[in-house]
Amino acid sequence: MKAPRGSGAICLVEDDSLVREFTRSVLVDLGYSVHDFGNGDDALAAIDAGLPAPGAPT
């Protein structure tokens, strides 16, 4: 049975780099675009700066 394919962008915040890399890999394999960050401050700074959706024209 194949897993359903996702779409869209996910902002992944995880301080454990091994967990973050594994989770990012799984989400990308499922079809999601992923922005990953090691802490909430970095994620919020990127969002405040206008983090574009992956694949969006810049």
TrEMBL record:
This is Response regulator. It comes from Zeimonas arvi. PROSITE patterns: RESPONSE_REGULATORY. It comes from the Bacteria. InterPro entries: CheY-like_superfamily, Sig_transdc_resp-reg_receiver. Residues 9-58 form the Response regulatory domain. One of its GO terms (biological process) is phosphorelay signal transduction system. Gene3D superfamilies: 3.40.50.2300.
